[in-house]
């Protein structure tokens, strides 16, 4: 398959927090990969801006090291790296200070796309927006990219939206949720809306339930202080898992257009029922294998923050009434695996005697590792053993189906940054969507805080707390195995 890389327009991209972890691990390597692929015009500029006193060469050295560490070796082309680094410069700026803004303004060109990536703590978003405006660095065509967490409840999200809205229109604000940049997540929309096959079945009449799993093996060690104020609900469910749920549950938009897609997602969020206490299981990993447990990593021996959560979520609308969505996510689990599994109902009547081989159809959308899709279907077991049934996968691993191109799926960040330059907001969250998600999340969190619920302990390397199994067993269902 021939790769189609359509270059974007030349741009000036300022990365506030350019020396930070996210910039060094994701943003700079992602930009390099797009440059290597020929998508970034050679006259584009990338300007790092952070508090450290660095010169251009110092920032280029950081970027060189980031490319060496985070870009696959087959893309290490000395000439391309040097050409890329030549487009990088740096300005020392304190978001709350006065210095550096004139130097930044002097670097910005007219007639190119201007984008500002706020890869800094959200408490600085307001200062940056205000100063970009006051120094007339940003104009009506500029775009700003903001990182998660976008608030920790409805009130703080509203305050962040308000502070950005003072200086930028909604059409200029790109709230990143990197899950939306994943190839399979976008493929979910292609599968649903570019094929006649699934959409007629995409409703509670034919779908028994949906499972969304985001399992991690890592602990919170090293960022326990941050995580302890967040927890799995705020860190994963309110944003990433909510976005996945929306893409599965939304009605077909009239067009693949930013507001049309986001309007449909918003309707789903507004149709979510409150979650009953018995439909929530929170967990905390215990110490094991000579590693500390959650409370040691959080540094608060009495912490009630959840490192695991499982929820049964109901959507009150015509399409989904009667089809629960089960969500689970956690740290220190047995494998790193993110997937969506859509389990169809059993056929109404079986003409075969082989009851044992009987299984429901399942569409599995794998986000990581090994992005791809799998449709589990029933067939006859080969051989002369009579009409025995077995389930096989109709496998669509991108790496295999699309050859080299499938194996080389762009990272979510690089795709999303190119969308910012193109001015396409489809894969970014709109302000009202974020607020609606918090409006659903807040009472759930307040509920367990008020009740004083303690999370259940679970062993490191397990599938999570026992109670989470019961959440499904109770309904006569079971979780899929967590495996890579
Ligand atoms: P970091 O602490 O590694 O880097 C912060 C950056 O901000 C540094 O470049 C620092 O110099 C700069 N900075 C701090 N105070 C400043 C000030 N007053 N003025 C100007 N610059 C200042 O943080 P990070 O991990 O890179 O995270 C950046 C943002 O991205 C945060 O909002 C974080 O929540 C979000 N985020 C990070 C990750 C990740 O994997 N690191 C993932 C998702 C979201």
Polypeptide structure, described:
The protein has 2 domains: 11-147, Rossmann fold (3-Layer(aba) Sandwich); 180-473, 2-Layer Sandwich (Dihydrodipicolinate Reductase, domain 2). Helices cover 35% and strands 19% of the residues. It has helices at residues 21-36, 56-70, 78-85, 101-107, 125-134, 154-165, 183-193, 224-228, 231-249, 258-270, 294-298, 398-401, 403-407, 412-422, 431-451, 466-473; strands spanning 11-16, 45-50, 88-92, 113-118, 143-146, 173-175, 207-215, 280-285, 308-313, 325-330, 337-344, 362-368, 372-380, 389-397, 456-458. It has a 9-stranded mixed beta sheet with strand order 14-13-12-11-7-10-9-8-15, with helices on both faces. The two termini are 28 Å apart. The mean pLDDT is 93. It binds nicotinamide-adenine-dinucleotide (NAD). The site of nicotinamide-adenine-dinucleotide has 23 residues, from α1.
Q: What distinguishing features does this structure have?
A:
single chain; 484 residues; alpha/beta; Rossmann fold; Dihydrodipicolinate Reductase, domain 2; 2 domains; nine-stranded mixed beta sheet; six-stranded parallel beta sheet; 16 helices; 19% strand; binds nicotinamide-adenine-dinucleotide
Kindly state the mean pLDDT as a whole number?
93
The total number of structural domains is 2
Q: Terminal Cα separation, in Å? A: 28 Å
Number of strands: 15
Give, in spatial order, the strands making up the sheet with the most strands. Answer: 14-13-12-11-7-10-9-8-15
The structural class is alpha/beta
CATH architecture of the largest domain: 2-Layer Sandwich
User: According to CATH, what is the topology of the largest domain?
Assistant: Dihydrodipicolinate Reductase, domain 2
For the sheet with most strands, the description reads:
9 strands, mixed
